[in-house]
């Protein structure tokens, strides 16, 4: 199951820089692990915003929730999720 996920990061202005940098480092490690597993298929920065648009490939909505809620930045993100299905005009055969 594919999902478009938009994450907007809202770190508190009062958070110490070292704490914020540690969170971002851990977030990168977790994200890259999920990418290697094929769960986090795409990660794009939204230009001009501290936000990303991502594509997740998961077995269930529950699994998606588990992955998202396990992200180190989860407490500091607004997250919008949209389910995706194949577009009838797509010529790609690798989208499920
Ligand atoms: O910077 C972001 O958009 C949040 C984030 C997601 C994966 C990652 O490494 O950072």
From TrEMBL:
<protein>
    <recommendedName>
        <fullName>Muconolactone Delta-isomerase</fullName>
        <ecNumber>5.3.3.4</ecNumber>
    </recommendedName>
</protein>
<dbReference type="GO" id="GO:0042952">
    <property type="term" value="P:beta-ketoadipate pathway"/>
</dbReference>
<keyword id="KW-0058">Aromatic hydrocarbons catabolism</keyword>
<dbReference type="GO" id="GO:0016159">
    <property type="term" value="F:muconolactone delta-isomerase activity"/>
</dbReference>
<comment type="subunit">
    <text>Homodecamer.</text>
</comment>
<dbReference type="InterPro" id="IPR011008">
    <property type="entry name" value="Dimeric_a/b-barrel"/>
</dbReference>
<feature type="domain" description="Muconolactone isomerase">
    <location>
        <begin position="1"/>
        <end position="89"/>
    </location>
</feature>
<dbReference type="InterPro" id="IPR003464">
    <property type="entry name" value="Muconolactone_d_Isoase"/>
</dbReference>
<keyword id="KW-0413">Isomerase</keyword>
<comment type="similarity">
    <text>Belongs to the muconolactone Delta-isomerase family.</text>
</comment>
<dbReference type="Pfam" id="PF02426">
    <property type="entry name" value="MIase"/>
</dbReference>
<comment type="pathway">
    <text>Aromatic compound metabolism; beta-ketoadipate pathway; 5-oxo-4,5-dihydro-2-furylacetate from catechol: step 3/3.</text>
</comment>
<dbReference type="InterPro" id="IPR026029">
    <property type="entry name" value="MLI_dom"/>
</dbReference>
